[in-house]
Amino acid sequence: MPLSGFEGMFTELIEAPEHARRLKMVLDCLPVGVLLAALPDGRIIFGNRMIETMLGHPVRYSKDAQAYGEWIAFHECGKQVEAHEYPLARVLQGEQNPTMECRYMRGDGSFIWIKINGGPLYDKEGKLSGAVVCITDIEGMKQAQARERLMHMELHHRMNNALTMIQSITNLSARFPSPEPDFREAFSGRVALLSRTQIMLSKNSWSAIPMDELVAAALPETLGHSQIETSGCELSLRSDVALALGLALHELKTNSRKFGALSQSRGHVGIQWRPLEGASDNQHVVEWTESGGPMTSPPKSCGLGLELLEKILPMQLGGPTKLEFEAGGLKASLVVRA
């Protein structure tokens, strides 16, 4: 019912008991809280059932507008709402339709976000005779807004992380010159991997990515490819670690295709992950083990892929990376902090 619909009813409430009873029945059926206050002092004369349910305590029949402070609420900044700031008081001071959003302290000490809309009430002669406020529970809306703000902040942060990683790769590329076709293929592969990981993060609301899904994104060959086998415990990685580990797996795959097990038809790569023994801060170890490929030996010079694996990515993974160039194939151990 619009606020103007209460005009005329206010006088009935305080003058005619039968009309007051019927009005109370109507107001008690409304899905919003309702308070009525009368001039000249602003005494609260009525509150419906919904306001008691919403606020968790009986109606407080404040004796005048100065006593509205017994309804305890706080502004978003944390400052307590003063008696004269409530829309009920502001209507009595001459405002037409004041509104307010605040965190109200319920009867059990918990808090709820509410929205208060106020409006004037007039007597039969058209003179201001009191005020009415409708109070709405907006806790769910506020929580949704907070989640949306957090998601936007997270998105901004993660996009900055991805951009920083791309900038780092670009800057490092200048230190490791290669023929243009090779550079273009390697660079586009890394950016494509970051893009796939970003898409996965967005689908997971920028929270955590399951390890098996990350491996599938970094190594599409794992899907139905007999040369690559994966196994491990249940593990979810936060977004910054997922980006770094995905790139590390991509670098290992690229190296294996050129020089390692994946360059041979009989070659095999095993990828396992497990909790790091003795770790106390949720660290896990990811092991990449090659077999059936050509004999390996440490490279004579450090390329961009090796630089990323040994020096750059460990800072984001949260642990060291170890590469062992064994006769049977490359073995890499990457410590990650989930």
Automatic annotation (TrEMBL):
Catalytic activity as recorded in UniProt: ATP + protein L-histidine = ADP + protein N-phospho-L-histidine
Q: Which SMART domains match?
A: HWE_HK, PAC
Class of enzymatic activity (EC top level): transferase
Listed GO MF terms = ATP binding; photoreceptor activity; protein histidine kinase activity
What residues does the PAC domain cover?
98-150
* Domain of life of the source: Bacteria
So what EC number does this one have?
A: 2.7.13.3
Q: Name one Pfam family in it.
A: HWE_HK
Q: Which UniProt keywords apply?
A: ATP-binding, Chromophore, Flavoprotein, FMN, Kinase, Nucleotide-binding, Phosphoprotein, Photoreceptor protein, Receptor, Repeat, Sensory transduction, Transferase, Virulence
Identify the PANTHER family for this entry. ETHYLENE RESPONSE SENSOR PROTEIN (PTHR41523:SF8), TWO-COMPONENT SYSTEM SENSOR PROTEIN (PTHR41523)
NCBIfam families of this UniProt entry? sensory_box
Q: What is the protein's name according to its record?
A: Blue-light-activated histidine kinase
Species for this entry = Methylocystis bryophila
